[in-house]
Amino acid sequence: MTSTMSTVDKATEVVGLVADRLADPMAVAEIASRPDNRDPIYDALMWGPLTLSNGLPGVALLYAELARSEQRWLAVAHRHVQAAGEAMTTQPSRGLHAGPAALLAATQICGGQYPGLRRNLAAWVAADQLTRLEACRAHSGAGVSWETYDVINGLSGTARLLLDAVEDPDETGADVERALDETLRHLVTVTLPIEVDGHRVPGWWVPPQLQVSDRDRADYPRGDFNLGLAHGIPGPLMVLSLALRRGHDVPGLRDAITRVAEWLMGWIRTDEHGTYWPCRVSFAEEIAETRPDGLFTRTAWCYGAPGVASALHHAGVTLDVFSWRAAAIRALRDALSRDEDRWAISGPTICHGYAGLLQVLHRVGSAAGDAELLDGRDRLARKVLDHADEEAPFVFRHLMRYPRTAPGATEFKALDVAGVLEGAAGVACALLSVTDHPGEQRSWDRGLALS
Predict the structure, then answer these.
(1) Residue 251 and residue 254: Cα distance in Å, rounded?
(2) C-alpha distance across the termini of the chain, in Å
(3) Among candidates 43, 26, 143, 160, which has minimal Cα distance to 101?
(4) CA 35 – CA 40 distance, rounded (Å)
């Protein structure tokens, strides 16, 4: 790439380079599954064949999007879909980002291909969803786990797939319709207030015994409320809003949207750089007479203002509430004016990197027709492109900071990851946002609760 190239030209060239590097599923698997290609915090291999996050379905999403304008890429998408299908029996899992649901997410945007496979996958997702809902109903005691509602591992992510499946004649059926309806009713119930220790709090409270790690139990001894789009209540807000907009109403759905949106409005914090949302709040912080300032936040898709703003803006459009939309836009503008050293994000990828922020700015900026946000999107695209490395196997590497609280770029480990959430395919998909013609619609970011 030359320094005189425009951002669009650079993005176009780099997306093509990523697409060439990821084209062979076997070569991708060999690189990504190297024994040393491991998350330094959890010691986990950064390769899951049947995942959106770092596997074959995530890569297939990129080629399905590229095939919209160049049909030749559909054959490459097919290679990854086929390889993922062969891995199906070895990767049983639940949630949108892994297992059959991940493959359904990829095949749904392959231009009407695989009708039989999509029908079978949609039926599996619906049956699994109904089983999980039954387990939720059997749970006793106040509070919920993330799995009961979040986007990555929970029922909101798979509900997003069911929204598309129920409207597709190749995928829909009685169980698909039932699973979507019961999930929407369940998510409405999750938003209902509950009483805990004499205090009325939101129903998505995660009690200590349902926290996912010992560290979380130590950090939140009385449980917490999660505001991240990845694992918190903004995910259900997005899904409920989209369901209503597409005509899938259930009793209490509008009230549920309002409850969540107003709760998020109540947690807007302001510092010297502007407005933001904390990542998580403790039980004590939620019930305090005066809500604290100075809470930890990121400026990422997964946690912080970008993800919350995206869901809140979507809700504001659905119910035509100006104050929600205005708060979302203001928070994103404030994020762009904030010192980048305070963003607490790193690297080019989606989850907690620059590409995730880029995609949020693209979605909200396009929906609102906001030039400042779209200019910010282009600024983020340039930051992403600065991380392109032709010597890296997939062009972009996922940066992991370790230990988690360590400062400084010297504490990053660069990993070769292929998929959407933490990999090069997701970076390339986000870069398509700056190369597309205005108004062009894509759907790869459904799994991020952005569309």
Answers:
(1) 8
(2) 32
(3) 160
(4) 12
Q: Residue 442, SS3?
A: coil
Q: How far apart are CA 96 and CA 160, in angstroms?
A: 9
> What are the residue ranges in the chain where pLDDT is below 70?
1-4, 89-94, 402-410
Are 33 and 47 in contact by the 8 Å Cβ rule? The answer is yes
User: Strand 269-271 to strand 194-196: parallel, antiparallel, or no bridges (unpaired)?
Assistant: unpaired
Burial (CB count within 10 angstroms: exposed 0-12, middle 13-18, buried 19+), residue 281: buried
- Residues ≥6 apart with Cβ < 8 Å to 58: 51, 52, 102, 106, 418, 419, 420, 421, 423, 425, 426
Residues 186-201: pLDDT tens digits? Answer: 999 999 999 999 999 9
Token representation of residue 415: 């990993």
Taking the C-alpha atoms of residue 130 and residue 134, their distance in angstroms, rounded to an integer, is 6
Q: How far is CA 232 from the centre of its chain?
A: 11
In the structure encoding, which two tokens stand for residue 11, read together? 């993005």
Whole-structure pTM over 0.85, yes or no? yes
Which helix H or strand E contains 400, and what residues bound it?
strand 398-401
In 17-174, the DSSP E strands lie at none
Residues in the chain: 451
Neighbours of 97 (CB within 10 A): 29
| pLDDT the model gives residue 404 | 56
Residue 364: which residues within 8 A CB-CB, separation 6 or more?
A: 309, 310, 313, 328, 329, 332, 370, 373
Using an 8 Å Cβ cutoff, are 9 and 2 in contact? Answer: no
Select from 210, 214, 222, 218 the least CA-distant residue to 286. Answer: 222
Gyration radius of the chain over CA positions: 21
